[in-house]
Design goal:
Distance between the termini: 74 Å
Strand content: under 5%
Helix content: over 70%
Oligomer: single chain
Number of helices: 3
Largest sheet: none
Amino acid sequence: MSKLSHREKADEKAVDTVIGMTTQLITLGTAVLTVVVGILGLFKSFTKTDLTHLTYAVGSMLVSVVFGLFTYGAVIAELDKTGGLRVAYSGPVRVRSVIQWFFFLLGLGLLLWTLSSYQPLTG
């Protein structure tokens, strides 16, 4: 059994971190989608603007989940191409991961903003 160098151990941890964070964002994104569906069932009196914001939040979460899958694909492709563990630092993986984070935070922000300004319709 060969010993891994300090750099190889760090690279292995970086790959594990990328995969773990990607998995967590996919899980959270799909959970938020479920929460939005539940919210729509509980609060039936959203304004048209609120429904538009919720639609954008759902869309952002879906894009985040899709880019999470793209990140997985990039990790696999880079592992296959390079044969090493430096993939966590490669451009294709980082770009897809940043896009995933951006859309996750955008969707979460839109959801929280919409819920914080929720005013039930009267009449």
